[in-house]
Amino acid sequence: MSSPRFDEVRCLSPAGFHFMRWTEWGEADNPRLLVCVHGLTRVGRDFDLLARLNAKSVAWIGTSMGGLIGITLAGQPGSPLGRLLLNDVGPTLDAAALTRIGDYVGQPVRFNDLEQATDYVTAISKPFGLTSRAQWRAITETVVVRDGGGYRMHYDPRIAVPFKQFTPEAAAAGESALWALYDAIVVPTLLVRGENSDLLSRATAAQMTARGRCPGRCRSWIRSPAQFFHPAFSIPPRVDW
After folding, report:
1. How many CB atoms lie within 10 A of CB 130?
2. 231 domain-assigned
3. Which of 75, 95, 102, 174 has the least C-beta neighbours within 10 A?
4. CATH code (residue 82)
5. Helix 65-74 × helix 168-183 angle, to 10°
């Protein structure tokens, strides 16, 4: 496997300048591009990156907000996305699960060392289904950053603001728009759902595989009984997509 390359671009938002950073693997001139987007990521004009790459076709793996962004992009006329994988996310999300996430996202927690940080990440992320301390440690190292003599979570705590503003009315309006975009998708789509997911219900998953402009376009794959929120792909999948 090649070594990762790290890069950044300066972006402008209403709050001022900020940097978007990403990790890139593989050959830079490979025409087959795969973009992986997690929930705690940037939005909007940051995706000008796709235009600069001038890729003819892009495969997209989206978890949480990354999946919702994938639905939005794939549902547009002339979208460059050629394949879409949605990881435990869909147009309809369970309100109780969103409340659960809002209870810990954005909390001003600090840790004395990586072991303490790993304990915290393990506690709030048990649904991920990881089974070893080494796996939890590896995930923790990607979501914390040094801060003085300790560590803190490596994202803007203000990302929690939308969760605090969540209302049933806003959820209904968002669902309607997302279903319209989802129904417009024509590219092959793989839906991955943890067997006991509290975010993406069985009913929503079944609806996603049954509707849309392209019959048979969306396949559903139950990841693992032990993983019921955001399957982490810690074991190489064996599925054609």
Report:
1. 20
2. no
3. 95
4. 3.40.50.1820
5. 50
Query: What is the pLDDT tens value at each position of the chain, 241 positions in all?
Result: 456 777 888 888 787 887 777 777 777 777 776 676 655 533 333 344 544 555 566 788 888 888 898 999 999 888 888 889 888 889 988 777 777 777 788 788 999 999 999 999 888 877 666 778 998 898 888 888 899 899 998 877 877 777 777 777 777 888 899 999 999 998 888 888 877 777 888 889 889 988 876 555 566 555 544 444 444 555 444 555 4
Per-residue tokens: 45: 């004009």
* Same domain for 194 and 124: no
Token pair 């600090």: residue: 110
Task: State whether 132 and 207 are in the same domain.
Answer: no
Phi, psi angle pair for 211, to nearest 5°: -120, 170
Q: Is residue 23 located within the same domain as residue 87?
A: yes
| Cα distance between residue 202 and residue 179, in whole Å | 16
Q: In whole angstroms, how far apart are CA 145 and each of 17, 24, 123, 151, 156?
A: 21, 20, 18, 5, 12
Asked if residue 145 and residue 190 are part of one domain, the reply reads no
Give the total number of structural domains in the chain.
2
Mapping DSSP onto H, E and C, the string for 25-39 reads: CCCCCCCEEEEEECC
Range of the structural domain that residue 145 is part of: 107-154
Residue 179 and residue 120 share a domain: no
Rounded Cα–Cα distance for residues 121 and 178 (Å): 30
Q: Is 236 within the bounds of a domain?
A: no
On the CB side of 236, how many CA atoms lie within 13 Å of its CA? 2
